[in-house]
Amino acid sequence: MALPNQLAWDDFRLVKSIAESRGLTGAAETLGVNHSTVFRRLGQLEETLGVKLFERHRTGYALTTAGEEMTALAERMDHEVAAFSRRLAGQEITPAGELRVTTNDSLLVHLLTPIFGRFCAAYPEIRLDIVLGNPALNLSKRDADVAVRATDDPPETLVGRRIATIAWAIYGQAERFPEPAKIDLLDLYAQRWVSLGENLGSLKVTRFINEHVAPERIVYRVNTVLGLSEAIGEGIGVGAMPSFIADANPALVRLTPPRDEFSAGLWLLTHPDLRQSARVRAFMDFVAAEIMKKRAAIEGRAA
User: What is the pLDDT averaged over residues 236-254?
Assistant: First the structure.
C-alpha cells in the first residue's frame, strides 16, 4: 500500500484504536475525542488513501487487508516509540521525575503505603503514580515502570528480585475458635468456608480449596484479599489468608501453621531497559530494604 506524504502518526493511532475496540465509541474513549470526530477522521483518511480500511458489520468494525497492513505498521511504530522512551528513561543520572508503580490492593494497604511514604520523604524529586490491581499492565510499553507482585512465575521479559516469600495459613474468627491449637485441618473441611473468586482461580490457595473443600461448604467468594479478611472476621467462614495481613487483625486467629503449598514469592520487577534508570534503581533499592525489615511477618514467623 502506497502511503501519501500527508499521513501522520495520529492517523495510524486512529486506525489502531478502532481495530482494537472494534468500533468508533471505544476508539473515541481511547483517543479522548468524541464519536463524531472519529467518524469524520476515518472518512477523511479512507478518502485520502482511496481504499476502505474497515468493513462495517453489526458486530463492529472489521479490518480490510489495507487496514490490517496499516494497523501492523502502527503497532511496530508504537513498539519503537515505547522502546525509545525506555532507553531515554534508563539514561537518567539523577533520581527525579514521575515513577509509575503497579501492585495489588492488599499489598498497598497492608504493606506498601507506609514504605512509599518514607520513599517520598527520602526522594522528594520523585513523584509516585500508583496503579492498582492489573497484573497485565505492560512494562514493555511503560504502562508502569516498576511492579510489586506476588507471584511464583514472573514474566521472563522483566528483571528484578524476589524479596520475600508470602506465607499463607488458614484463619477463622477469633470468637468462634477460642482454642485454635486443638483444631485439625480435617476438622476444618466440615466448616463453612470463604474463598477467593474464580478470577483468582489460578492461585495455589484457591486451587487447594476447590480441590479439598466440598463445593456446598464454600458459602462465600470474593475477588479481593481485603474482602476475604473482612468475611472471615465477620464469622462467615474459615479461609486462607496471607499471614502478614491476618496476624495483624485481632478478629482473626490462625487455625493451621503457614502452608508451603499456599506460599507465593514477593517480587520487585522492571523492564531491562529501565533497570539503570536512577529513579527506578533508587526505588527498588529503597523498597527492597524496607520490605526486608518486615520479612519475618511476611513469611509468617512473627506471630
Answer: 95
Query: Residue 34 and residue 27: Cα distance in Å, rounded?
Result: 9
Superfamily of domain 91-165+264-298: Periplasmic binding protein-like II (3.40.190.10)
CA-to-CA distance for 263 and 282, rounded, in angstroms?
28
Q: What's this model's pTM, rounded to 2 decimal places? A: 0.66
- Say if 9-89 and 168-262 have the same CATH topology: no
Please give the class, per CATH, of domain 168-262: alpha beta
Query: Alpha carbon of 268 to those of 73, 105, 116, 136: distances in Å?
Result: 33, 16, 14, 15
Confidence of residue 299 (pLDDT cuts 50, 70, 90): very high
Question: Residue ranges per domain, the chain?
Answer: 9-89, 91-165+264-298, 168-262
Measured CA to CA, the distance from residue 135 to residue 126 in angstroms comes to 24
**Residue 120: which H helix or E strand, with range?**
helix 113-122
- Provide the 3-class DSSP secondary structure of residue 84: helix
What is the chain's length?
A: 303
Cα distance between residue 111 and residue 130, in whole Å: 14
Q: CB 265: neighbour CB atoms within 10 A?
A: 16
**pLDDT, tens only, 170-193:** 999 999 998 887 888 788 999 999
H or E element in which residue 264 lies: strand 264-270
CB of 47 within 8 A of CB of 36?
no
Cell 515502570 appears where? 145
Q: What's the CATH architecture for 9-89?
A: Orthogonal Bundle (1.10)
